[in-house]
């Protein structure tokens, strides 16, 4: 263990640069601890996001040594080989300043992919009885725990190469709704994800699945959407 | 800059996807040439024969070995994608991708041995 | 990419899988036997079976490769999706034309 870490942090906007700081290494130190140390003791102008610090909110996602990760759940000892760390903002998103990105396009694509529940009942109707052990509910439950941290979106090369592509998170949410028997918006949803930028753009690189901190599997969800949209197209429910 | 971007993309499955894409591109470039060569038969058997004997040289044979590898790896990679997209999710994707590459290399090697 | 192009690309891929296996086997057979042009053409000329086999292969690969090229152009070059589509169609037609010519060259008596 080195006594001092050499930490490169991205400073500035899109056309910024990495600046290097010296941070004391401690036992049981997370990457978020390192960033916080710099802001508190070295340079108060450093901008970054965090909230819960304990791995349930997803706000602290950044690019650490080339990989998008939750910094509060990344132990320095595991990633700082040779005592060096390179920390940058999440990729595939515009940089606001330093380590903070503009996530609006991430959420806009969520809406465009119709990752939004379309209700069929009102409060005056009886509560829907949803069995947890139907194949559809099992599929939805396996994909539902997304907290919109943006790691999958940042890791995805198809997002990088194709501006229209909705990305793994939006499509995974669409998949949970496609499998939700209470939802009434499936035709519009399948239509939305069957066009340019939809699920068919996915090349199954599986970076999303490998890096999702919630152990979700967008690749599998998107494969399911591919099957559903093909069926919907072939039986005339949607058009190309 | 590029090296940094490539860090988390060294995973086996990303590599498999890139190999699949590049092999497809290579085959797409090769195909018109292949069709033109076969089209030589229009000018008669002798013309095609001349061409086939031209391909007997070692450098062309090595190119053919590479093509056999690219062809096989593109087929096997494509089958893996069809499995992901049409059958239930299965683990072991990295192993399947590695297997596809290994089988393709073996097929290309067998071809190499047979033409030399 | 959209659902229609996806279906065409995956369907032609599935159709071609067995054709590719046969073609690879043929490559091995032909090179092992050291087939000359005369050997090849004596087998293919006048053969409806080979015409059908390779005709289907050419049709499928023209579609499959064109859509693949379209994706690569859209993702890896500055071309818009529309322009990538036009280039892809042109490429597909080129493959179909050259391929049909090649099949005719070896199959027509």
Give a structural overview:
The complex is a heterotrimer of chains A (240), B (116) and C (109). Chain A has 240 residues and is an alpha+beta fold. In chain A, 35% of the residues lie in helices and 14% in strands. Chain A has two domains: 98 residues, Beta-grasp domain (Ubiquitin-like (UB roll), Roll); 131 residues, Alpha-helical ferredoxin (Fumarate Reductase Iron-sulfur Protein, Chain B, domain 2), CATH 1.10.1060.10. Chain A is built from ten helices and seven strands. In chain A, a hairpin with a 5-residue loop joins strand 1 and strand 2. The radius of gyration of chain A is 20 Å and the shape is elongated. By secondary structure, chain B is mainly alpha-helical. Chain B has one domain: Fumarate reductase/succinate dehydrogenase, transmembrane subunit (3 helical TM bundles of succinate and fumarate reductases, Up-down Bundle), CATH 1.20.1300. Chain C has 109 residues and is mainly α. The relative contact order of chain C is 0.14. Helices cover 87% and strands 0% of the residues of chain C. The chains are: A alpha+beta (240), B mainly alpha (116), C mainly alpha (109). Chains in contact: A-B, A-C, B-C.
What does this entry show, briefly?
Chain B is mainly α and 116 residues long. Chain B contains 5 helices and no strands.
Low-confidence sequence ranges of chain C: none
| Number of E strands of chain B | 0
Low-confidence stretches of chain B: none
The global form of chain C is elongated
Radius of gyration of chain C equals 16 Å
Strand % of chain C is: under 5%
Provide the CATH topology of chain C.
3 helical TM bundles of succinate and fumarate reductases
Largest sheet of chain C: none
CATH class of chain B: Mainly Alpha
List the helices and strands and how they pair.
The complex is a heterotrimer of chains A (240), B (116) and C (109).
Chain A: E1 4-11, E2 17-24, H1 31-42, E3 61-64, E4 67-70, H2 76-79, E5 84-88, E6 95-97, E7 100-101, H3 104-112, H4 135-143, H5 151-155, H6 157-161, H7 168-178, H8 186-193, H9 207-211, H10 218-234
Parallel strand pairs in A: 1-5
Antiparallel strand pairs in A: 1-2, 3-4, 3-5, 6-7
Helix pairs in contact in A: 3-7, 4-7, 7-8, 7-10, 8-10
Chain B: H1 2-6, H2 12-38, H3 45-54, H4 58-86, H5 93-115
Helix pairs in contact in B: 2-4, 4-5
Chain C: H1 3-33, H2 37-44, H3 48-76, H4 81-107
